[in-house]
Specification:
Elements: E1 7-9, E2 14-15, E3 22-23, H1 28-41, H2 71-75, H3 107-121, H4 125-137, E4 142-143, H5 148-153, H6 172-187, H7 196-209, E5 230-231, H8 233-242, H9 255-261
Antiparallel strand pairs: 1-2, 3-5, 4-5
Helix pairs in contact: 1-4
């Protein structure tokens, strides 16, 4: 059973309906983690293999800790990398701690792992996730990317009553994707098919048309494993059901892998240390 309530856009009085899409924000990460672990089950990735063995983006700093970061470190947030760089156009990605020694919540780490998956599969993020998860799970209204249909059905962010503001929040992902969408149309290449190299090539063109600060580095205009999933409530429920299936289908995670996904993966002092693989427990 499902039902929508409230407004997808309060200024236009657009109601939430059955197929309204919502930004999953950081709940994009567990969905991506599920696909990463499917690749582990298939032997295409290894949990404890350094990411540099698969791909070393040129924005990484030269640092010995970089070479030790593994797939497992990304999924349990123990890479030592920051969440996001303040100036990614000019700043190298540098770890603040040795991997496996503390929890550092990191969107940057998930983007690097996204590029690893892109290298392993030869596909864009959306192509891989659609093939391995969205299609077999019946998640027909889910995408990490953007097009005119997704735009029309996506809810806007609003300030909460009483927090000192009124009206609409800054629509950061929407602004970035809408700035790059005309280029995707011109190239006859939908954003769902874009890989990092496409975003690199498009970045100067987007900067010419986007407001300042919207497009600072290629990941700002690329489907983002850490943050850009949008889907219906029903689709996310379908994903959650996969976490509790007693008898998984052949395409789903193996029972032991799913158990590991939901088991504590690191024992370090401090807050937020009960990290599974893609989940905070």
């Amino acid at each position: 059973w499902s039902r929508g309530f409230g407004m997808a856009n309060a200024e236009r009085r657009t109601p939430v309906v059955e197929n309204t899409l919502f930004e999953a924000a950081s709940l994009s990460k567990p969905v991506f983690a599920y696909v990463v672990l499917q690749l582990v089950d298939r032997g295409e990735l290894a949990l404890d293999k350094p990411l540099v063995a698969y791909r070393r983006p040129d924005y990484l700093a030269e640092h010995p800790w970089i070479d030790r970061i593994t797939v497992r470190d990304v999924l349990r947030h123990s890479t030592g990398l920051p969440d996001w760089r303040k100036d990614p156009a000019n700043e190298k990605l540098v770890p603040a701690a040795a991997p496996g020694t503390r929890i550092d919540y990191s969107g940057e780490a998930f983007v690097w792992l996204q590029l690893v998956v892109e290298t392993v599969t030869g596909e864009s993020l959306d192509e891989t996730v659609r093939r391995m998860l969205f299609a077999p799970a019946g998640m027909r209204d889910s995408s990490y990317a953007w097009d005119t249909d997704l735009a029309a059905r996506s809810a806007y962010g609003h300030y909460a009553p009483g927090d000192g503001h009124s009206g609409m929040l800054p629509q950061m992902l929407r602004e970035a994707f809408e700035a790059v969408q005309p280029i995707a149309v011109q190239w006859n290449r939908p954003l769902s098919a874009w890989r990092y190299a496409d975003a690199e090539r498009a970045l100067p063109l987007v900067r010419d048309r986007a407001p300042p600060g919207v497009a600072n580095w290629p990941s700002d205009i690329l489907a983002n494993a850490a943050a850009s999933l949008r889907c219906t409530v029903q689709d996310y429920a379908r994903f959650m059901a996969l976490m509790v299936h007693a008898d998984p289908a052949p395409w789903e995670l193996r029972a032991a892998t799913r158990s590991a996904m939901l088991s504590r993966q690191i024992d370090v002092p401090g807050r937020w240390t009960d990290k599974g693989l893609g989940w905070n427990l």
